[in-house]
Specification:
heterotrimer; A mainly alpha (172); B mainly alpha (94); C mainly alpha (118); A: 172 residues; three-stranded antiparallel sheet; 3 strands; disordered C terminus; C: disordered C terminus
């Protein structure tokens, strides 16, 4: 099982993608999509240096994604207001640094996707020496609030989802 | 007033907005003081063209535009990534 | 006007609202691109175009075709997922390219000084 289906979630989403692309539910397309779902992860496994992600707690992941979606819509309206109503010179755009504890590469990828999807914040890079995240904020009013928000509302759930609770567990 | 005229008016309004948006992108593409501005404007232009294809699909009631929009999204991603990587590393005189 | 079949009112009004909203948000994003002063502010403009403008149009398209053809048409979800997964990568790469270029320009202007953190 583990050997032929290294990541069942990836295979299922490839099958779903095939069915949606063809807009059909015929048995033949289930077969083709199934072959695609089994073969593509096997063939692309050498391309993934960190292996497939293990999602420990799917429920926490969904809650995180829902929170992020609400946050995206909310900050869309904030950015719209700023663009339409304020003069460009008055907007306080700044780089800030956020110290991170998250180490898992998949978790960092998810964190960067969520932060970059939210209008008004852009991830620049991780400064390697102290594992700090360099972030550009469109309209900064309180740096400590941003650090607190990112650490509690984004980083903590991602650590729950992707990293093993006990240090002796098998990290992938 | 039927729903067809309502939809036609709404899609015409959205088309006008998107075309205006594309004009603004083109303005930034031509004016843009630095190369990264131009790449950003080009990326936004790709997005606008994708939205334009979807709108034309709704307006003409045809699903062929969906494939066009999907391919535009794919090509836009790849070309912007290539340009951004070029900006980062590919200076002619390093 | 070739297409645009008649939908029932309960579907036509949300579709029309989503279309108008999506068009306006797309426009606002590019106004930000054209109007803001520095590059680091301009990069935040298109983010709303991508996240919410394209999102509204995609939902409108899904709703329209689902009702017009009276079957479930959700393959626009593919575009949404693709855009949501790739747009962050694009903005991060452009941002890093801009930061590297600015740092390099600062170093070239002033070779003695190790350019600090932008």
């Amino acid at each position: 099982m583990r050997r032929w289906l290294p990541s069942p979630l990836l295979s299922a989403s490839l099958l779903l993608m095939w069915l949606m692309l063809n807009q059909t539910l015929e048995p033949a397309h289930w077969l083709l999509g199934g072959v695609l779902g089994v073969l593509a992860p096997l063939l692309s496994r050498p391309l993934q240096p960190h292996g497939h992600a293990r999602i420990r707690r799917p429920l926490a992941l969904f809650r995180l994604l829902w929170m992020a979606a609400v946050e995206i819509v909310r900050s869309c309206f904030n950015v719209t207001q700023i663009i339409l109503l304020r003069r460009s010179a008055d907007v306080n755009s700044q780089f800030i640094r956020v110290p991170l504890e998250l180490k898992s590469p998949h978790g960092l990828a998810l964190l960067s996707c969520l932060i970059n999807s939210t209008p008004g914040t852009v991830w620049v890079e991780i400064l390697p020496e102290r594992h700090e995240l360099l972030l550009h904020v469109f309209d900064l009013h309180d740096e400590a609030w941003w650090v607190h928000t990112i650490k509690t509302r984004y980083e903590q759930p991602i650590i729950e989802v992707f990293e093993t609770p006990e240090p002796g567990g098998s990290r992938t | 007033m039927t729903t067809a005229t309502l939809l036609s008016a709404a899609s015409f309004f959205a088309l006008a907005c998107v075309v205006l948006a594309m004009l603004l992108c083109t303005l930034r593409l031509m004016v843009g003081p630095s190369a990264q501005d131009r790449v950003l404007a080009l990326d936004t232009l790709w997005m606008c063209v994708m939205v334009l294809a979807l709108l034309l699909g709704i307006r003409h009631g045809s699903q062929i535009y969906f494939e066009a929009a999907l391919i535009i999204a794919l090509l836009g991603f790849v070309s912007t990534i290539a340009l951004a990587k070029f900006l980062m590393r590919g200076e002619v005189i390093e | 006007m070739s297409g645009a079949e008649s939908l029932p009112w309960w579907a036509a009004i949300p579709v029309a609202l989503l279309l108008v909203l999506g068009g306006l948000i797309t426009l606002v994003g590019t106004i930000g691109l054209a109007r803001l002063q520095s590059f680091y502010q301009r990069i935040h403009g298109p983010a709303i175009t991508i996240a919410l403008g394209a999102g509204c149009i995609l939902v409108a398209s899904m709703l329209y075709f689902t009702v017009a053809q009276s079957r479930l048409v959700i393959h626009e979800l593919l575009i949404s997922v693709f855009v949501l997964m790739t747009a962050p990568v694009v903005s991060m790469l452009i941002m890093r390219a801009a930061v590297y270029r600015d740092l390099r320009a600062a170093r070239d202007m002033d070779p003695g000084n190790d350019a600090g953190n932008s």
